[in-house]
Amino acid sequence: MNFGERKRWAPSVRTVLIFALVCSCTSASWASALLDEMNAQYKREYGIEIVADHESYPITGTGGSIDAVNTGVNNGDMVLYFLRKEFAKYPPELLRRAGVKRIVLCKELKKQSTRIAGIAVEQTGSIYVDSTTKIGDESHRRRTLHHELFHFIDYALGDVMHRPIWEAVNKGGPAYGSPAPPPKSGPRNWASHPALGFVSDYSLTALPEDRAELFAALMTNNLTLRLLVQRDFNLATKVKILKDELVQFCPQADDAFWARMSAF
Ligand SMILES: [Zn+2]
To answer: Residue 26: pLDDT above 80?
Structure first.
């Protein structure tokens, strides 16, 4: 390339650089605008703050077993879209009564070195959500938002480890902590139905997880669950218990609310 050519190229390079800079500024301010907009709405309607930066990890008060990295204000857009759509399903009163104070966007979220999509930390009223695409598929991440929210509803409802009516349904079946049976042949389905009354393998791990898994399935209108409740009386009974508890907890979680969920 001679000098003349270099002169002709120079403005083009500058144009490209300026264009790249403009694009990056536009995208940064757009992502921040989404976070700002949702933060304003969530604070006003639900009393919830969305946090994407300046969170200290590992999370104290949890034995140091939960670790993550801040997402940063410009990198949480994907999870913000999930959040906006999924939480819009709730009556605002239900979210306020749940008592969640913060939704914290992070990446590399781990509990005891295992990657997870989300976790509820009762002590600080916080739900930590991995905002990357590296953990679970889209359905998993959507379910996670409802699952973690339910832990707060459960805390508000009382002693999460003792639900006599619910536990009575499990009588004669596997105890919590039992291993899940080997996977069935064919494509993996989250709603694996490992035993009568249990929607997923994770439901078997503990009473609060069983309840949160079933709630998340209802909130995402899981089609396998819709079929299962027609032939699994235990599962249908648990669905009824959950719905009865929820309408007592928040009158807006009524039949009309569940009819809307079934239409999503
Ligand atoms: Zn859980």
So the answer is: no
